[in-house]
Amino acid sequence: MLSLDQLQPIDLESMRAKLSDSGCSSSSCGSSDKPSDMAPDVWEKIKDHPCYSEEAHHYFARMHVAVAPACNIQCNYCNRKYDCANESRPGVVSEKLTPGQARRKVVAVANEVPQLSVLGIAGPGDACYDWRKSKATFSEIVKDIPDIKLCISTNGLALPDHIDELAEMNVDHVTITINMVDPEIGAKIYPWIYYRNKRWFGVEASQILHERQMLGLELLTARGILAKINSVMIPGINDEHLIEVNKWVKARGAFLHNVMPLISDPAHGTHYGLTGQRGPTAMELKALQDKLEGGAKLMRHCRQCRADAVGLLGEDRGQEFNLDLLPEEVAYDPAKREAYREVVAKERGDHVAAKTAAIQEVKASADQSLLFAVATKGGGRVNEHFGHAREFQVYEVGAKGIAFVGHRKVEQYCLGGFGEDATLDGVIAALEGVSFVLCAKIGDCPKDMLKAAGVEASDKWAFEYIETSLAEAYRERFGGAEIALTA
Ligand code: CLF
Ligand code: SF4
């Protein structure tokens, strides 16, 4: 079986030869099927979008271009002045781009990152408020790369003014950040907004923002543009209220609801950071997401990207494509992206079949839920060493089958061939609630320390599909009614 690991570095001839050996002669053969409850046109829009499809995020990458620095509201969790290449969170960038510079960068990335499928504008300000630059950027880039999906993220205040143009430009994916539907709660999140040439404050500001967000969402739904709602979970301010938000956005046709944890640190210079407002723990976030099940469909694989992120979700290759590293003139070469898609079409079909079988097996035999953490670098396989992982993907395995429920970011434990005990302590803390870790390689020392903390770890399923490995691990290690309920 051809694995995604074998795709790097890209070797077009060997990729084509392997496809030919496998009997696959077209780019559609073996591609994963549309879910039975999804309209074909919707599936076409999401099947290669790493944010709108959890399955696609194993294979496809997004890039953001930071062309929209201006913003028309202030959120208490945002400080756009902050710039740190090691920091990954929305609103943060290393360099702001003109539309022409953005075109250069996107073409350079498309030539080198074959997984690239989506171009997003997610700030560092607001893509709809800074509309002239957002529009110019999209218009430039689709001339070179017509098959790239266009995506924007906005606070929603200026969104209703641009729905027609979004539809005309084939922007099929719009994210609105909606943190409240009650302006009294909004006043604790937004100190002011700037609307119709005037600054508005307090509850009045949040009332306007709320009305514009709901109008924008309704207009997107009416146009058939897929709307994703991002909500920042702020403990003590809007955590329980997000249940209400979920109902409102579901009623207005939101395609996905993505509840993200507040990132808050005094060093970021945000209002919340400076006033001690904490973010939720991983388990608090999961508990809220679990309460939202049955409402608007949830996204749980968000990585809270920077406004200049490049690569698969969970990796950021932005620094490789800073403007000063790029040639002045760069022409688009579709060869790597096309070859990658051929290989992925086959791999993905196999993966879906294996995953479906694994889920059926677990559903038929399991009666208790356990959390598993998986070290992966993409392709839907257990293919990352424990010591190299910068995040673990977390799956819940139990009577409902196998479900991706989130990720845990960690500091890389092994650097230069040595592991630091203090770092391992941090990894163990990040794995709160997890019973078992699957990875491609793990040494005896970290394995023993994990065991002492009540977490088993194994590299037995190295390079296998994640769901197949989880089903086997569950059966081998935890099968039977004596399993403790830890999820
Ligand atoms: Fe970017 Fe957002 Fe489009 Fe994705 S991100 S504009 S929908 S292409 Fe994705 Fe990043 Fe989460 Fe956003 S993981 S922060 S949800
Ligand atoms: Fe920052 Fe975005 Fe809020 Fe504007 S809408 S203040 S850019 S987080």
Annotated CATH homologous superfamily of the largest domain: Aldolase class I
Q: What small ligands are held by the chains? A: FE(8)-S(7) cluster, iron/sulfur cluster
Instruction: Indicate the CATH class of the largest domain.
Output: Alpha Beta
Tally of structural domains = 2
- Portion in strands: 15-25%
Query: So how many helices?
Result: 14
Percentage of residues assigned to helices? 25-40%
CATH fold assignment of the largest domain: TIM Barrel
Q: Could you give the order of strands across the largest sheet?
A: 10-9-8-5-4-3-1-11
CATH architecture of the largest domain: Alpha-Beta Barrel
Task: Explain what the structure shows.
It is a single chain. It contains 14 helices and 18 strands. It has 487 residues and is an alpha/beta fold. The protein folds into 2 domains: 31-325, Alpha-Beta Barrel (TIM Barrel); 347-477, Dinitrogenase iron-molybdenum cofactor biosynthesis domain (Nucleotidyltransferase, domain 5), CATH 3.30.420. The chain binds FE(8)-S(7) cluster and iron/sulfur cluster. FE(8)-S(7) cluster (CLF) binds at residues 51, 62, 64, 90, 118, 120, 122, 151, 153, 173, 175, 228, 258, 302-305, 313.
